[in-house]
Amino acid sequence: MATKKKKYKFMNTTFWSSFLIILAFTIWGGLAPDTLATQADTVYSFIANTFGWFYLIFVFALIIFNFYLAFSKYGSIRLGGDETRPKYPFYTWIAMLFSAGFGVSIVFWGVAEPMTHFGTPPPFEPGVEAGTAEAARIAMWNAFFNNGIHQWASFTFVGLAISYFIYRQEERSLISDTLNPVIGETGKKPLRRSIDTIAVIATVMGVATTLGLSVLQINSGLGATFGVESGQTTQILIVLAMFIFFMVSTFSGLDRGIKYLSNINLGLALLLMVVVLFIGPTGFILNTITTGLGDYLQNFFQASLRLGHYSESTWVQEWPVYYWAWTIAWAPFVGMFVARISKGRTVREFVLGVMVTPPFLGIIWIGIFGGTAIHSDLFNGTQIAAAVAENEATALFSLFEQLPLGSILSFLSICLLFTFLVTSADSATFVLGMMTTQGDRDPSVVIKGIWGTMIALLAIVLIISAGLNGLQTASLIGALPFSIVLFVVAVSLLMTIRSDYRETSERKDIAKHRKIAEHIEEEENGDS
Q1: Can you say where in the cell this protein is located (predicted)?
Q2: For helices 320-340 and 479-527, what crossing angle results, to 10°?
């Protein structure tokens, strides 16, 4: 009977439908990458231009919703029984969040984004010249904003919803099960399978393209540090090396592989930040972070809803709208993993831990590395912004060429990128295993191995064909319909939390009155 059950879990509609769709996209990206990129860009451009306002409002609403739950009377609800306590200490928990989320994105864009805005200022400040002090200030706070709490709002919300339904309602680890209070606990199978399939496809495409794009950055670092020739052969070897490492980590289990690598990731990231802070222009960096945070907070509400539709600029569609769509598309993956490691946290701890701490670390990273790069171009006449405009993947290593210990820092950054990618791929295979085995919280190594192999092969095919950008853009198209799903999830979560809180309060009141009655009865018996 056990064998039958395992076979049934593996042979399900969600697995095969998502697998075949991803295979079709892989073949398309391999044989006709330009066509895929063109078609995906056309569709995404239409969505971004027509519904950009919706993305901005939706993510802003998620921030308000998350903070409301955290600071309301529901904030003390524990994700698990009232006596349950977190399995992982705070440092390890944050390290795992950072590693499975956008740690690798921060390393990639920490220099590239502020230097891009420095070389080409956003269109909202007319008359600002590129490469000036004013351009530098605008570049930093916009980079802070684009990588701030908005990026983690979707992850936080999806992770909280899944956590609540898993640990408080004993539902399966599936996105579709968070809709049960609205659509019912049984039936609606086509709808459920469609939702879960979209989540799987977005996860595989997002991880594969991030893997491929980050391989390009590692290749650039190897070239700058060790003179390794850049090319497809080197990039494929990097993918194969990462594949071996993340499969070993996958087979080691959550409490060994991901846990230990995540601790290493965060420790290495903090080491790099401290070193660059002290060997770089320390005072300028600290001033940059302070001013940038002030500008970020001052412009928070205005920037959350700006569109730039009074001009022909597409800056909003290319930066915040693109980022928000990316995070919505990635939300099932990151949210599912965050839920898996967050049992025992209160709602308040969860929201503040997930939506505030990783973005804060990201902002500090951007302030240190981006601030150092801007100082170098502003006061030393270097051309880091020009190098970034030519090739974004070289941004971090162009900076290190201007610093003492540059080779050592480049080597450590390559190691950091490598371990970040290993943990991202590892956590992705774990989540994909749960998604495609009807919510099994301990998926077999076979199903994790299948998805790990699929991700690596997809990345290799797309590196060879240069179809990475097309597939990445294609994955974002699903963000619009999935955001509608998340709106229903929000209604479902709020209904359930209110009902659960009311029932819990009633039980506590009954228990309290019973205790008082027993106490009075004991006193009366004692008097008699």
Answers
A1: Cell membrane
A2: 40
Give the residue, 369 or 468, on which the prediction is more confident.
Answer: 369
Report the distance separating Cα 164 and Cα 178, nearest Å.
9
Residue 199 CA to residue 480 CA, distance in Å, equals 12
- SS3 string of 426-445? HHHHHHHHHHCCCCCCCCCH
Q: Minimal CA–CA distance to 326: which of 30, 100, 55, 28?
A: 55
Q: Where on the phi/psi map is residue 306: left (φ > 0), alpha (ψ -120 to 50), or beta?
A: beta
* End-to-end Cα separation, the chain, in angstroms: 63
Provide the residue type at 481 as one letter.
Answer: P
Tell me how far apart the alpha carbons of residues 455 and 443 are, in angstroms, rounded to a whole number.
17
The type of residue at 272 is L
Contact 430/337 with Cβ under 8 angstroms? yes
Alpha-carbon gap, residue 74 to 286, rounded angstroms: 37
**Residue carrying structure tokens 């409490």:** 255
- Closest by Cα among 510, 462, 389 to 30: 462
Contact of 229 with 223, CB cutoff 8 Å: yes
**Could you report the per-residue pLDDT of 48-76, keeping only the tens digit for each?**
999 999 999 999 999 999 999 999 999 99
CB of 483 closer than 8 Å to CB of 54: yes
Residue 515 and residue 314: Cα distance in Å, rounded? 65
Chain Cα centroid distance, residue 79:
21
pLDDT at residue 368 greater than cutoff 90: yes
Over range 407-431, report the average pLDDT: 88
Q: What is the DSSP string of 275-334?
A: HHHHHS-HHHHHHHHHHHHHHHHHTHHHHHT---TTSS--HHHHTHHHHHHHHHHHHHHH
What mean pLDDT, rounded, does the chain reach? 87
Cα angle vertex 52, ends 46, 57, to 5°? Answer: 155
Residues contacting residue 146 through CB under 8 Å, at least 6 positions apart: 113, 319, 320, 323
Which tokens belong to 256? 């060994």
Neighbours of 518 (CB within 10 A): 10
